[in-house]
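Suppose a classmate hands you a notebook page containing two proteins, each written out with its sequence and a corresponding row of structure tokens. How would you begin to make sense of it? This section walks through that situation. The first entry is reproduced here exactly as it would appear on such a page.
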Amino acid sequence: MRAAVVTEDGLAVREVAVPTPKPNEVLVRVRAAGLNRAELQMASGHRHGALGGIGAVVGLEWAGEVVEVGADVPDLRPGQRVMCSGSGGYAEYAVTDWGRVSPIPANNMSYEQAATLPIALQTMHNALLTNGRLQPGDGVLIQGASTGVGLMGLQIARLMGAGVVMGSSTNPERRKRLTEFGADVAIDTTDPAWPEAVQAATGGKGADLIIDQVSASVANANMKAAAILGRIVNVGRLGGAKGEFDFDLHALKRIAYIGVTFRTRTLDEVREITRRMRADLWDAVTAGKLRLPIDRIFPLEEAAAAQAHMRANAHFGKIVLAM
């Protein structure tokens, strides 16, 4: 099969063997794969937790048809249209644990649209509801809201009854579009006074919940923007993994600061994340209420060019590979 493989010179499409599913796994004929920023590091030879390294097939989410199921796999069958998370998705075939597989709704959802959803749904449901403890009426800020995961966060916050929903982007054109995906207020974090804008939007209280995909460059400003007893969930580090931290402000506001990643989660934990997400969100997914815009579709042979497009940070929404 053809697959995008990590080489000494970067990402390249090569012929590799079709993977064989273990008893708990599903083999899928991949039709489309969504791109994610973690894959940029993997393509450069860096590992992402246990994933990656020279010779690895890149790709954390995809959609296609089930070809084969392992002996221990429940409720999935060959021929079923599915969306998946896991590893090795930039390929004509990929395997993953059955607990990371969801059926594509029986509507007009394309494989390309389905491939944009698994990571965003799992990540933001876990950040907003499980770790962020979102309550109806909470003021919510999504940092880095113009990414695919960020746009999904805005929609989930709105769906689950948040009060004021705010999203940030440093790009003025992308910032204008955040209201299309559930934001009441678009925040420009290049303006040093942006925490005051959050305070104003929340009637002086501050954000009850901040989902932070940026981290170091906004860490202290996040705490200024947060409410007393606010929660900050660290999901990504697009603005740096290390920086200054105002411990006194953290204590003064009694902020719960929570870090999350999939890299250290067990298989059972990931299965539970997917189960909870589907319990809360699948009706909305099926109804077409939770969707992501596709910025551009590349063929598999142009996987390196697709990653270059992501690295240029000129896209809005998701970039997809078509097989």
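The notebook's second entry, a different protein, reads as follows.
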Amino acid sequence: MSGISPANRKLSQNLVGLCAFDLVARHGNFTGAADALGMSQSAVSQRIKALEQELGVVLFTRIHRGVVLTNEGSRLLNVVGPAMRQMGNSVNALLERKSKPRVRLSADFAFSTFWLLPRLSQLRSELGEEIELQILASQIPPEDDGDDCDISIHVRPLSQMKGDDILLLQERVAAVCSPKFLAANGPITSSKDLLKTQLLSLSRPPSAQWQTWQGWFDALGIVGERSQNYVSFNNYDMVTQAAIAGDGVALGWLGLIDDVMRTGLLVQATDDVVDSFAGYIMSLDRPNSYSGPRRVYDWIAQRAGTKPSSAAKK
């Protein structure tokens, strides 16, 4: 414990006193602070006296039926007050999580928008209100030591599947656009014609592993120079909206944008579909925690019509 500074040692020894000080200052008397702490008025008074002796200053001036802060007390409250409120809010959040289980789910923007959100009301209805669901949309999977997530759904190579991982959607990608764009810029007789067409791109962070236009062309054996620069976005919903608006051709992940294509807002620009050795893989990051994450995990797996990887490999 040699690394603990004298200030930290004093702080730990006087934390209850500082809490009592904050409450007395807020209530303006010992009675209200005593009720909030579940202590007697005399016990709170003793805490304040001990804190004053420890700090070597007078924090309150005693008046009839109450107290007022001294100058030293006001300076201390400016620091202690916000810290106590922040700690109180954090503790309340943890207690609320304990009483109302929370499931934190990390998924990329595309899956969150096009798969989860259309099913969210059904999920909450069938699982009940006792589970608080938090969806953390991120372009990259959470680090193992990063966000405290229960479930993650991101595009990863199939070779990385392990344990109870589930392949929700294998990556199948087509070139899609609006009927209006196709009518104005067609006919597009082959995927190679897309090199001369305005393409809409989803910016990919270095650690992300989903399909890109270059990878799509490479998979089809298409080589050549593009005649136009990409229009790039960092959010797949924006890519899709731009394609619907007729601004260009986008990569469409089949299984995600099926509803949009059924409405006719988007159509395939060519017949080519590229299957990769990757897909949306769902991982249960904390399998031994309470039952809430497992229930959400099983619900998503059932709606996707999939099985755990261990069963699929048999």
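A careful reader of the second entry would note: Residues 309-314 have pLDDT under 50 and may be disordered.
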